[in-house]
Specification:
Length: 281
């Protein structure tokens, strides 16, 4: 774990919450009852109104029925969402791993209708970014060194999420692998990591599910009785990691003249104009 010193990051010696320790060790955790029923109701009301008011965001090629499930940059649209991402019950869990100056890098509302799991990439085993410390085959992360955490995803649940609803499933410890999930097993319900099976995040409204960006995870298959899913997703990153609330074509540090001079795709990327990927949608 880490803390921000006068200028630089330092090892943390202060005690942290059990959920923080589990996040570092296992790659995931659930914090129960973070948000009160009143807070959940306010979030549901504001986010539902945004889904009805605003058309789906253009974030890459996606079928219209899939695009309709998402609304991005929620803290720009909703005061309740902005308050939620700064909830002390979340920050006290993630700050010992990311530093006290960590920030939101993406903030997306998900509303998956009942009986419609969609074809979004989250259906298959994946990692959100990285791996941040890639390891070659046959190399294991040293057990005596805590694995660094660079980004954490959080799902703030606005309705209960049971096993039939296709909850997020994680493979405990897989964030230590230094690798992405096997490319030939991306939809394998029986995938394991070093013998450890999938752990579904079964939650109630007001709970928060947290996972390290490097952990192998997916939306599990829905079952009979699926009620759909409704949650506010927040990704937090270390101060060094750029925000991804908006695509770089919309939010960048460049002058029109600099953009016009970039004639090739590599020249565009080297000045910071990247195609949407990972946290962009």
């Amino acid at each position: 774990m880490i803390r921000r010193g006068r200028a630089y990051l330092q090892p943390r010696t202060e005690a942290a919450r059990p959920e923080t320790e589990q996040l570092e060790r296992e790659g995931y955790a659930v914090v129960r009852g973070v948000f009160s029923p009143g807070e959940v109701a306010a979030l549901r009301e504001e986010i539902s109104a945004i889904f009805e008011r605003d058309p789906p965001d253009e974030r890459g090629a996606r079928a219209p029925e899939d695009a309709a499930m998402f609304r991005y940059a929620m803290l720009n649209r909703s005061a309740a969402a902005q308050a939620a991402v700064a909830h002390p019950g979340l920050l006290e869990v993630i700050e010992p791993l990311l530093g006290e100056d960590c920030h939101v890098i993406a903030n997306t509302a998900w509303r998956n209708p009942a009986g419609h799991p969609g074809s979004h990439g989250g259906q298959n085993w994946h990692i959100d970014a990285g791996p941040h410390v890639p390891l070659p085959d046959g190399v294991r992360w040293p057990a005596e060194i805590p694995h660094p955490v660079f980004a954490i995803g959080v799902h703030i649940y606005l309705q209960d999420c049971a096993i039939e609803d296709g909850p997020t499933g994680v493979l405990p410890g897989s964030h230590l692998s230094g690798r992405a999930p096997p490319a030939d097993r991306t939809f394998d319900d029986d995938l394991d990591y070093e013998g450890r099976k999938v752990q579904p995040l079964i939650t109630r409204a007001g709970d928060a599910g947290l996972f390290v960006s490097d952990v192998w995870h997916r939306r599990m298959p829905t079952r009979d009785g699926d009620h759909g899913r409704f949650f506010l997703q927040v990704h937090y990153g270390r101060r060094d990691i750029a925000q991804r609330l908006l695509p770089t074509a919309q939010a960048n540090h460049l002058s029109p003249e600099a953009i016009a001079r970039a004639g090739t795709e590599r020249e565009r990327r080297v000045i910071g104009l990247h195609p949407p990927f990972f946290y962009d949608g």
